[in-house]
């Protein structure tokens, strides 16, 4: 019985020493988590993003073959707004556009503007496929990916001059 107690005590001491040397290594990693990005507030304000978005919308309307079919526009806007209602960090109103383009694509730009190519609309097998692409583009806006990219470019610009 004494031998069993001794074995248990030795095992407990060894386990304590082992864990005692390993746990601090795990604690140190909490201080070195990777940076997940900036808020992008130092480069562009939301108001500036809205102004840039308005400028690009004017460019889009002047150069892209927008589809103005009332039923399609209503459908795209309705689906988009349903998705936006579930998004986090919505700081701007959203606008959805459909352009006549045979490439399956979509893009988002400043000020809550999302553009879908008609091929994406035409070749989606169901609403869920279309919605997943739209949700992806909405997340680019809510996460301010363009503003962050501009901030990164501004921060890294001196490196490109070397």
TrEMBL record:
GO term, biological process aspect, one: proteolysis involved in protein catabolic process
GO molecular function: metal ion binding; metalloendopeptidase activity
Tagged with keyword Repeat: yes
Gene Ontology terms: cellular component: membrane
Signal peptide bounds: 1-27
Entries under InterPro entries matching the protein: Mito/Outer_Membr_Metalloprot, Peptidase_M48
Protein name: Beta-barrel assembly-enhancing protease
Organism: Klebsiella michiganensis
Co-factor binding details: Binds 1 zinc ion per subunit.
Family the entry assigns: Belongs to the peptidase M48 family.
Species classification: Bacteria, Pseudomonadati, Pseudomonadota, Gammaproteobacteria, Enterobacterales
Keywords assigned by UniProt, alphabetized: Hydrolase, Metal-binding, Metalloprotease, Periplasm, Protease, Repeat, Signal, TPR repeat, Zinc
Cofactor(s) required, per the database record: Zn(2+)
Residue span, Peptidase M48 domain: 75-152
Keyword Glycoprotein: no
């Amino acid at each position: 019985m004494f031998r069993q107690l001794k074995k248990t005590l030795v095992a407990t001491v060894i386990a304590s020493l082992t864990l005692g040397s390993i746990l601090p290594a795990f604690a140190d990693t909490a201080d070195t988590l990777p940076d997940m990005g900036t808020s992008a507030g130092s480069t562009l304000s939301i108001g500036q993003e809205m102004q840039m978005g308005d400028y690009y919308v004017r460019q889009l309307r002047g150069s892209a073959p927008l589809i103005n079919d009332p039923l399609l526009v209503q459908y795209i806007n309705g689906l988009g707004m349903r998705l936006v209602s579930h998004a986090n960090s919505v700081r701007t109103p959203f606008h959805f556009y459909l352009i006549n383009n045979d490439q399956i694509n979509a893009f988002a730009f400043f000020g809550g503007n999302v553009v879908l190519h008609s091929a994406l609309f035409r070749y989606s097998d169901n609403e869920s496929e279309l919605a997943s692409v739209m949700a992806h583009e909405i997340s680019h806006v809510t996460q301010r990916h363009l503003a962050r990219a501009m901030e990164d470019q501004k921060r890294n610009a001196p490196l490109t001059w070397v």
